[in-house]
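Protein modeling request. Please complete all fields; requests missing the sequence field cannot be processed.
Requester role: graduate student
Desired output: 3D structure, token encoding
Chains: 1
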Amino acid sequence: MRVENEARVMAEVVAGSGKIEIGAGKDFENIDALVVSMVIEFIDPWYQEDTDLVVICGRQLLADKYFPIINKTQAPTEMLAAEIVTSQKRLGNLPAVRVPYFPANGLLVTRLDNLSIYWQEGTRRRTVVDNAKRDRIENFESVNESYVIEDLACAAMAENIILS
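Delivered output (164 residues):
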């Protein structure tokens, strides 16, 4: 994204700050506003109303959004409402998809079918070595593969997000 689609990557709001601040009186009041802004500003108009758009994020941003709702003693009716809200896992009214090892301070808005993995045929290699010195068997595998965003007009990224 940073190389092929730099115009659709939001790394800062205030020039030279190097960050996107979220909180009262900051760049965005909440993370939902950031996601809505990303869709409006960076996703091409013919994709903006697409019901398959999702927000890909790491676990921490979702936890930061929902922790204040969960971390309260609430009446049973409010507890049920909080459980419903937190179970939906939405950011900016789009479904949130948690991805392991995704950058903790980043978001990617796209369709899941816009992401692809390509691998080159005949490049899968595997070697198994019995390493008696270390009392173990070592397995070495490699393959030529590439991860691709198919349509860059349907992808927007935000990074350097600071929640305060």
